[in-house]
Amino acid sequence: MSELENGLNKLLEEHQHESGLHVIGGRRKLMDRLVQFFEDYRPDYRPEDRPQYGADRSH
Question: Which residues have CB under 8 Å from 22's CB, separation 6+?
């Protein structure tokens, strides 16, 4: 697991604990999607060059 993935996983685990969320099996899938988003993100791209996540993202 990468440092980014470890950090996101810890943050999500803490958030679930604090807010009482019970997501069985969904945390791993969300982690994979978050890591993919951050790996795809490049600050030097123009907004229209970035991958779009979600149907309503226009920027």
Answer: 16
**Per-residue pLDDT tens over the stretch 33-48:** 777 777 777 666 555 6
Confidence bin at 49 (pLDDT 50/70/90): low
* Residue 16 CB coordination number (10 Å): 14
Prediction pTM value? 0.42
Q: How far apart are CA 25 and CA 38, in angstroms?
A: 21
Under a CB-based contact definition with an 8 Å cutoff, are residues 51 and 40 in contact?
yes
State the sign of the Cα–Cα–Cα–Cα dihedral 7, 45, 32, 15: positive
